[in-house]
Design goal:
The protein contains 15 helices and 24 strands. By secondary structure, the chain is of the alpha/beta class. Strands 1, 2, 3, 5, 13, 14 and 15 form a seven-stranded mixed sheet that branches. Strands 18-19-17-16-22-23-24 form a seven-stranded mixed sheet, sandwiched between helices. It has a two-stranded antiparallel sheet with strand order 4-7. The chain binds adenosine-5'-diphosphate and 5-O-phosphono-D-xylulose.
Amino acid sequence: MSDRTLVAGIDSSTQSTKVVVCDAESGDVVRTARAPHPDRTEVDPERWWEAYRTASGSGILEGVSAIAVGGQQHGMVVLDEQDAVVRDALLWNDTRSAGAAADLTRELGGVSAWVDAVGLVLVGSFTVTKLRWLAQHEPDHAARVARVLLPHDWMTGRILQHGNGFERWTTDRGDASGTGYWSAATGDYRLDLLELAFGRRLAVPEVLAPSAPAGRTSDGMLVAAGTGDNMGAALGLALSPGDVVVSLGTSGTVFTPHDHAIRDESGAVAGFADATGRHLPLMCTLNAARVLTAAAGMLGVDLDTLDRLALEADSGAGGLSLLPYLDGERTPDLPLATGTLSGLTRTNATPANLARAAVEGMLCNLVAGVDALRDQSVRVERVLLIGGAAASRAVRAIAPALFRAPVVVPRPAEYVGVGAARQAAWALSGAAQPPAWGLRVDSEYQVPAGDTSDVLERYAALLAQMHGR
Ligand SMILES: Nc1ncnc2c1ncn2[C@@H]1O[C@H](COP(=O)(O)OP(=O)(O)O)[C@@H](O)[C@H]1O
Ligand SMILES: O=C(CO)[C@@H](O)[C@H](O)COP(=O)(O)O
């Protein structure tokens, strides 16, 4: 009988729930499972619970001493006085509240007022804008709302309720910092901003300290605070100064732990908090892994064949460019945008060039995020590539030249889940710092000779031409 302590991390992200069980001391992943979510931008939270129950139904949590949830950020989960869900949650990638974001920005006195208040330039992803949309467009639902939570908050409470250990609703600094009514700089709620958006005050969850437990189930399993998925991924990677993470999941994100809250009135970088008591400046795009899925669908090939085709083409795809705003875009803030294929000629109209343009276009949007961190005086010495599309051979090969930095691919793992498991181990230990789980590297890719500035310049020129940015 093994005497090691096991901890579990849940990644409740956009497309699926992943369960990761780790050795609490070493961080070795010993069990994993996953189950899909509906492919929608508004989802009944019960679907997340069902996915969690499906993924953990095979006894994967047997012997686990502590658990934590890393959840997709910003989702609006609204409950009535009896803690019943009032309507489907609006997710981070639902853009219907883009107009509300513009209204709220104007009402508070402009972009700098919001950056001063909560470190964010409002876009439709953020929870506070969704509350305004709800108040304006669904007054009957809004009248029933007593409390607002984030996806990870609701899942954490649901696990405790299921285990007869629920005491109160909780959240953490990291996820709270993405609401638009909590400040990473001060560590305080700004419920005046919630009231500005919704028209009245609502109950909000208690913000727990990074290693504080949210509670224990009746069989003794500790449930930690949990956090947002990107904060979880940062905690799951043993990052060193100069490391910048690029995550290629449903969203594309660029982030790095930082010692102080950043101010970016351009809106490229959000001033989030991390899951350890520091900060996590982060850029997020709505379009990442699914740009490659869409390109593969257009070509009628699988993702492995898309990789092969992209690697057959030359850098620059023969002059073919793709602005990858297939679901609108968050950064740049173009919620109504669509994708644009540009520079098509009879010469470059080949499957290989289309595949290459999809990879380059998706990455160019994230290069803007890395450069935005550089503009915030963040040192970028290497890029750690995670998320589903980090498995792409083409992405790995093309990224270093575009990022102008070496690319490290950690050993494939669900790093949001690993980070949540590390938080669970930290809460279980009661130590001052999280356990020292090392970074396991799968492969490294150096910046090749040659110049890719033409690709980046063409992308920027197309963005300016199409959207005046
Ligand atoms: N080898 C691959 N090449 C490109 N994309 C991939 C590959 N493997 C998985 N993906 C994509 O990764 C995405 C899932 O990544 P994940 O990080 O789990 O997403 P999320 O956390 O947003 O739910 C899917 O869109 C899937 O198509
Ligand atoms: O909105 C953000 C970050 O601000 C997204 O990163 C969401 O947190 C969803 O993440 P994934 O499902 O793509 O992991």
